[in-house]
Amino acid sequence: MVKKIIIFDTTLRDGEQSPGASLTMGEKLIIAKQLARLNVDVIEAGFPISSEGDFEAVKLIAQQVKGPIICGLARTLNKDIDRAWEAVKYSKNPRIHTFIATSEIHRTEKLRKSKEEIIQIAADAVKHARSLCKDVEFSPEDAARTDLDYMCDVVKAVIEAGATTINIPDTVGYAEPEEFGKRIKYIFDKLGNLIRKNRVIISIHCHNDLGLAVANSLEAIKNGATQIECTINGIGERAGNCSLEEVVMNIKTRNDFFKNFKITINTKEIYKASRMVADLTGIAVQRNKAVVGANAFAHE
């Protein structure tokens, strides 16, 4: 059976968190329209509660960009979720994406909440989001450093609360491919019946701090994940995110190896998207960057 791999682009949200990157509302709309031409499945257009400008940009994209799901990010706070909904509700296909940290270091040092409190907050947030929007994504932030069984307890609770996509992030780019693949497999081994019964999508969101975001994402789909979160040129905070062009071209070019997967990206639009994002963000593409770098098809 051939699985469709959903391409979730977060260039306008996580990508814009790159140091020095700043986009106007008009520039965000230009990039969003190019992402639609690229035929990405989901555009995470921003974090509406973070500023009035981000709210208006997400709202504008929801109103004007047709085709992809338009997603807004929200913390597990009702005010965040309400604000996200106010922005994305204009889209024909809106999504609310809510998150809370689950790793021990984040629970104890940042949130100062117990395991049980985190589960309750997460479930309540998803229920509230589902009361507004039928498409709700949940992320246990820093999942790659979260105890496996506790992570599954959180995932189980939010699926039962109504989450339609569960995203497993390697928030600090710490995971190794074999390790990350086993984490995704463990979720299916433990919660497979619940996932299938509720038709839940398992997603991944990998950072590139150790240079493994693409490798980790590819290993995850081999172990059951069907959504990859990525950015144009791999931009993002710190060392960046999984690179859309690299992960897409791995699946397409090595279809002999990834024969059980299909993507619907219009690859002819990748180079244009890459140059557009580089020009508008001011973040140049390194010459030896895979797929879109100036030297990618040159040698001396």
Topology:
Blueprint: E1 3-4, E2 6-9, H1 25-38, E3 42-46, H2 52-64, E4 69-75, H3 78-88, E5 94-101, H4 104-111, H5 115-132, E6 136-141, H6 148-161, E7 165-170, H7 177-197, E8 201-206, H8 213-222, E9 227-230, H9 244-253, E10 261-262, H10 270-281
Parallel strand pairs: 1-10, 2-3, 2-9, 3-4, 4-5, 5-6, 6-7, 7-8, 8-9
Helix pairs in contact: 1-2, 1-10, 2-3, 3-5, 5-6, 6-7, 7-8, 8-9
Element-by-element helix/strand order: EEHEHEHEHHEHEHEHEHEH
Beta-strand portion reads 15-25%
Low-confidence stretches: none
Question: What's the arrangement of strands in the largest beta sheet?
Answer: 2-3-4-5-6-7-8-9
Number of strands: 10
The dominant shape is: globular
Pick out its properties.
300 residues, alpha/beta, 10 strands, 44% helix
Structural account:
By secondary structure, the protein is of the alpha/beta class. Helices cover 44% and strands 17% of the residues. The chain has helices at residues 25-38, 52-64, 78-88, 104-111, 115-132, 148-161, 177-197, 213-222, 244-253, 270-281, and strands spanning 3-4, 6-9, 42-46, 69-75, 94-101, 136-141, 165-170, 201-206, 227-230, 261-262. It has an 8-stranded parallel β-barrel, surrounded by 9 helices. Helix 1 (25-38) runs parallel beside helix 2 (52-64) and helix 1 (25-38) runs antiparallel to helix 10. It starts with a strand and ends in a 19-residue tail after the last helix. The mean pLDDT is 96.
Concise description?
By secondary structure, the protein is an alpha/beta fold. The protein contains ten helices and ten strands.
